[in-house]
Amino acid sequence: MSVILAIESSCDETSAAILVEGKVKSNVISSQLEHKEYGGVIPELASRLHQQHVVRVVNEALTAANIAPEQLSAIAFTRGPGLLGALLVGTSFAKGMALALDIPLVEVNHMQAHVLANFLSPTPPSFPFLCLTVSGGHTQLVLAKNHLDLELVGESIDDAAGEAFDKAAKIMGLSYPGGPEIDKLARHGNPRAFAFPKANIDRFSFSFSGIKTSLLYLLKAGLKVDPEYVQKHLADVCASYQAKIIDILLEKMADAVMESGVKHMAIAGGVSANSELRRRFVELGSTLNVEPHIPAFEYCTDNAAMIGIAGYYKLLDGQVADLSVTPYTRGF
Ligand code: KG4
Ligand code: ZN
To answer: Least packed by Cβ within 10 Å: which of 19, 68, 69, 108?
Structure first.
């Protein structure tokens, strides 16, 4: 029987999950709220907090699943991409535990795991499908041919979509992470109140640095005439800014779906928790007559369950890591 302990520590969430035969039995996520006061993730602080919390989080995941360490058949962990010091904590912990229990170690790519989070759903996508992975560090369009054959079709040439949300929130004085804040405020705003630019770049590449700069200029100009400008227009600015990011994402998605002829499409990553993106993604599915797939909320932002499902498929394929494995900070 496959009983996997999965560990995620690539950024600011310490998470552990137990999967039995590829089904989630527990998924404990400990978010490092300490970064909020700095307006972003402080890498060294993240490493220290992972060190503090990893034992507790793993124990909680085992207890919640009613699994003893001796019952585990493998340990999956995030090898990268992410913050080096943060990744080292999960990697070292996973190695130590695999060594102590004499069970296989499985290394997982965090971005591929975001895509495979769609297989935690009771109605997963059929192959081949396209997945738009939108997180704080990445924006990627991926063609999934099978669980382990994931081809990168395009990605952002500068900021990630999540970064565009986070940086905009910072400019507007909102708290970190900015995505959920803008999502909430945008519900009361007019998405057509302000016009934001769309970078004209090739095919399936994305660019989000221009839209962020244009927001900065818009607010600076507004503040010159009215010191209350940001507060007065906050909801409309959030709604218009968010709408433009979604336009950019879904336009590329639609082009890629039509060009590839896939019948299923998915979204993944932290930004896929965005309520308006979820709504418009489903709408796009009807327009294109393609089945849309969205992970449950808890599997959109960073979590160990997605590392577990990726580890499950790798283990089925016999892909076991060596104990000398080291993390990487970049790469798909
Ligand atoms: O996947 P994730 O948890 O971590 C990375 O791998 O980066 O993604 C975090 C990103 C942050 O940029 C955050 O602002 C964004 O996901 N995010 C959202 C929402 N919830 C999280 N962006 C827009 N709307 C949301 N509701
Ligand atoms: Zn992530």
So the answer is: 68
Nearest CA, atom 11, ligand 1: 136
List alpha helices for 132-228, DSSP H: 161-171, 178-186, 209-225
Q: Indicate if 189 and 99 belong to the same structural domain.
A: no
**73 and 156 inside one domain:** no
Task: Using DSSP bridges, classify how beta strands 264-268 and 129-134 pair: parallel, antiparallel or unpaired.
Answer: parallel
**221 by DSSP, 3-state: which?**
helix
Identify the residue whose C-alpha is closest to ligand 1 atom 21: 270
Asked if residue 87 belongs to a domain, the reply is yes
The set of protein residues with a Cβ atom below 6 angstroms from ligand 1 is 11, 135-137, 162, 165-166, 177-180, 183, 269-271, 273-274, 301-302
Give me the long-range contacts of 126-129 (CB less than 8 A, separation at least 24).
126/263, 126/264, 126/291, 127/264, 128/260, 128/262, 128/264, 129/262, 129/263, 129/264, 129/265, 129/266, 129/293
Task: Tokens for 197, please give them.
Answer: 């630019």
Residue type at position 319: Q
In terms of pTM, does the model score above 0.70? yes
Distance 179 CA to ligand 2 centre (A): 14
In a domain, 328, yes or no: no
Identify whether 326 is part of a domain: no
Minimum-distance ligand to the CA of 300?
Answer: 1
For residues 86 and 80, give the distance between their C-alpha atoms in angstroms, rounded to a whole number. 10
* Same-domain status, 282 and 304: no
CATH number reported for the structural domain that contains residue 190 in this entry: 3.30.420.40
Mean pLDDT for each consecutive 10-residue tract of the chain (332 residues)? 97 98 98 91 96 98 98 98 98 98 98 98 98 96 98 96 96 94 98 92 92 96 95 97 97 97 97 97 98 96 98 98 96 90
- Identify whether residues 224 and 284 lie together within a single domain: yes
Bridge partners (DSSP) listed for residue 275: none
Backbone φ and ψ of 292, nearest 5°: -90, 140
